[in-house]
Amino acid sequence: MNPLFNIEPEVYAGVVLPIIIFFARIVDVSLGTLRIAFIARGHRYLAPLVGFFEVFIWIVVIGQIVQNLHSLISYLAYAAGFAMGSYVGLLLEARLAIGTLIVRVITPSEADALIARLHTAGYGVTSLDAHGSTGDMTLIFTVVKRRALPEVMHLINEVTPKAFVTVEEVRSSQEGIFPARAHSFPGPLARRKAK
User: Fold this and answer.
1) What tens digit of pLDDT does each residue of 146-180 get?
2) C-alpha dihedral (111, 114, 118, 121), degrees to nearest 10
3) What pLDDT digit, counting tens, does each position of 90-129 carry?
4) Closest CA to 144 of 168, 110, 117, 116
5) Hey, is 185 helix, strand or coil?
6) Which segments within 46-115 are labelled E, that is strand?
7) 26-41: buried (b, 16+ CB within 10 Å) or exposed (e) per residue?
């Protein structure tokens, strides 16, 4: 019997261990996805911490597989956990919405109305006159927190539904105008400005 679970070794190797491996892989691959997102966004202290737990779980799982090399079910659980962990990690990363984005809008019309709407909503806006293949255009830039993107896209689509819009990740930003949120926490720039 397995002293840890007080069950027969065959049941442990054939049922319990694959379940443990499956869920452990979901957790460690999800952490890996978040770690990569934190690295890409410059979170230099959070990424190593997440990486520690990711690798610790992975080592434990590999150790269990090595002890049960004859278990095909454990291999399948390992692969299935990896696949599910990739999916869960992407869902978590999207849910956390960490980071800053630059939204670029190119529109031949309604530029003033869009700029006014974005300003009213509290977003900083920079606009430039431009010339495109179909004539004069206005190029509008705004830098937003990632969680604010749906609201910004809604404003853009409401005012200029046919505008050409691109969105890119911003690795870092300094200063700027961002709408105040009731549940937001001030960052180091906000603390520095308050002094």
Assistant:
1) 888 889 999 999 998 888 999 988 765 555 555 65
2) 160
3) 888 878 777 788 899 998 887 889 999 998 888 889 899 8
4) 168
5) coil
6) 100-107
7) bbbbbbbbbbebbeeb
